[in-house]
Each structure stands twice: as structure tokens, then as C-alpha cells.
Design goal:
With about 325 residues, the chain is of the alpha+beta class. It has helices spanning about 10-20, 30-35, 60-70, 120-140, 160-165, 165-180, 195-210, 225-230, 235-240, 240-250, 250-265, 270-275, 305-310, 315, and strands at about 40-45, 50-55, 75-80, 80-85, 90-95, 95-100, 145-150, 150-155, 280, 285-290, 295, 295-300. The structure holds zinc ion (ZN).
């Protein structure tokens, strides 16, 4: 473990130092270098977003040269492959991505203010990433890669039957995996009476979400009285006393709660990223300058600790 950083922005000088001394193109995963000529690359050169776009590199060493020369505030690559990335023409496929940003997690358990992140909310983000990943695997997808974004996690799925899918399919899939839809059930059945398929996934997220609600925090779309009522019954939720909970809260209010929890779940990752088949994503091996952390490919998500693996030298030396 290195010392804990407070995740402050890097100066332009520190960014230069990073790309001069520490940056290593070999850290870019093979799934990017292997088809580099078919991806779009983009850079944020002045700290105002990725305006330098439509770049194409036919070889990794050309990309390396460009990155070192630009020492950008941020570097990105497309999740899509194109016949002509310079014009973003001839789209053939795109990885499907789940982008879990620690600062946007409505269920984070730390005391960070808006826009801030700390080791604890990075931990919370990892927990959500692992849960999403379990659900992806349950559907049979196997070609799954993880990247620490600097401020959270990217899950990049590359199964051949998934990379060809369109926005509509991805919208449905992301809602399914996050438990972000209200379960549609035949008359008389409840999500908790069906332990498999979508109701099963939803019930699992319901438990997770309820367990992470805090009394003094506000949640998008969750009314205060219902929040209080369900927090009080956390133990009943964990012991699966669903009938009792529903009766005590009253069935119509419980139905509302089911909708509201789905609404919170919708914010567990950036769903816009998941459905966008032309998205650009931070390039592993580069610096996330806003928090002074390295964006990097992860070998073992279970054991990965960003505070020991993704802290650049210029922060350790401070
Ligand atoms: Zn935090």
C-alpha cells in the first residue's frame, strides 16, 4: 500500500512529467493495439474536453509518439471499429461498456462532496462493478475486460454476438443488468416470488440498494417517508420477509417503492455510455489528470487496489 492520496488534479507540469518519465505504451491492452488502425483516437489538449478528434494510427509506435508529444490532459479511444476512423465511417462493431464513476454513484457511503472522490467511494464503485459483472456472466457473456478509469471502473464486453448490437438492444440490456426496470409481472405475482430471470436480478439489486441507503441523504426520485420506512425494515429485507414488508408499508406504497428503487439503480452507471455505439473511452495507460490517477487495464478485478496500483510516481514522490 502506498500512502493515501487525496486525489487532487495534476498540474500541466506533472502531466508532462508523467508522459515523459512514466508513460508506457506496452500498458495498452492487446484488444486495442491489435486493431489500432480501426479505432478513432481523441485528445483533450487544453483541459476543455476531447476536441482533438478523428485521429487514426496505423501502428502503436505512432500513437506513442503522438501521446508523448501532446502530453494531453486526457486521451481516448473509440469503443467502435471503423473501416475509416478518420471520418468515423464504415462502423462495423463496438464493445459494450459499463462505466461506473465513483463520483456519480448515488449509493456511495463516504462523505465526499459533489464531484469529489476518495478511496472509499472507489471501493463502492468496485463493489457495483463486480455485481454488474456477475449479472453479465449470468447471461452467458464471457469476453469481459476491466479498466480502472482513474475515478471508477469500465467493464468492456467484447463477445462477438454483442459487439454488433444496436442502441435499442443495449438500452434493454443495461436496464436488465442494473435492475433499472420495474419488473412486469403477471397478476398476483411479485418480484420476490420469482427467484430467477429479471425478477431475481431485480430483487438482488433491491437488497443492495436498500442496504446502502442512508438516513440523511437524498436519492433521485425516492420520497423521504418511503425511504425512512424501508430503512427501518432493512433487517426484514435481508431475511427475505417480503410479504411482511409489503404488508407493513402497504401494497400500493410498496409498488411505488419498487419503481423508485429501479429509478435509483438506473444511476449506478452512466447508461449513456453503454448505449452509445460510437463512444470514446479513456485510453488505458494514460493519466486522469483531474484526480492524478492512472487509467489502467486490470488483470484481476477481485484483488485490484487502485491506491497501490494506479498512483503515478509524481504523486508518490510528493
Ligand atoms: Zn468518497
Amino acid at each position: 500500500m502506498t500512502k493515501t492520496t487525496n486525489l487532487e488534479p495534476a498540474t500541466k507540469e506533472q502531466i508532462r512529467q508523467y508522459y515523459h518519465e512514466e508513460y508506457n505504451t506496452k500498458e495498452i491492452p492487446e484488444y486495442i493495439t491489435g486493431n489500432i488502425h480501426r479505432r478513432e483516437f481523441a485528445f483533450d489538449r487544453i483541459g476543455r474536453g476531447p476536441k482533438d478528434r478523428y485521429n487514426q494510427y496505423t501502428q502503436t509506435r505512432h500513437l506513442e509518439k503522438a501521446i508523448k508529444a501532446k502530453a494531453p490532459y486526457a486521451a481516448y479511444t473509440s469503443v467502435a471499429l471503423y473501416d475509416n476512423p478518420r471520418k468515423r465511417e464504415g462502423w462495423t462493431e463496438a464493445e459494450m461498456v459499463f462505466d461506473v464513476d465513483a463520483k456519480d454513484n448515488p449509493l456511495r457511503t463516504c462523505t465526499c462532496k459533489q464531484g469529489e472522490v476518495c478511496p472509499q467511494c472507489l471501493d463502492d464503485a468496485k463493489e457495483i462493478t463486480l455485481k454488474i459483472s456477475d449479472n453479465i456472466r449470468e447471461l452467458g457473456y464471457k469476453d469481459i475486460h476491466y479498466v480502472f478509469s482513474g475515478r471508477g471502473y469500465h467493464i468492456r464486453i467484447q463477445d462477438p454476438e454483442l459487439v454488433k448490437t444496436d442502441r435499442n438492444f443495449r438500452t434493454q440490456l443495461v436496464n436488465y443488468i442494473l435492475g433499472a426496470d420495474t419488473p412486469e409481472l403477471p397478476e398476483g405475482l411479485q418480484h420476490f416470488t420469482i427467484p430467477f430471470g429479471y425478477p431475481g436480478i431485480y430483487t438482488d439489486w433491491f437488497k443492495y440498494t436498500v442496504n446502502h441507503l442512508q438516513k440523511d441523504k437524498r436519492y433521485p426520485g425516492l420520497n423521504r417517508k418511503l425511504k425512512k420506512d424501508i430503512i427501518k425494515r432493512k433487517q426484514l429485507v435481508n431475511n427475505n420477509h417480503w410479504g411482511l414488508i409489503r404488508g407493513q408499508i402497504t401494497p400500493p406504497r410498496y409498488d411505488k417503492l419498487v419503481e423508485m428503487i429501479a429509478g435509483i439503480n438506473h444511476h449506478l452507471c452512466d447508461t449513456k455510455v453503454s448505449i452509445d455505439t460510437k463512444r470514446i473511452l479513456r485510453l488505458p495507460s494514460t493519466l486522469h489528470h483531474k484526480v492524478s490517477m492512472k487509467c489502467m487495464a486490470i488483470r484481476n478485478i477481485e484483488t485490484f487496489d487502485p491506491m497501490s496500483k494506479a498512483v503515478p510516481k509524481f504523486v508518490e514522490e510528493k
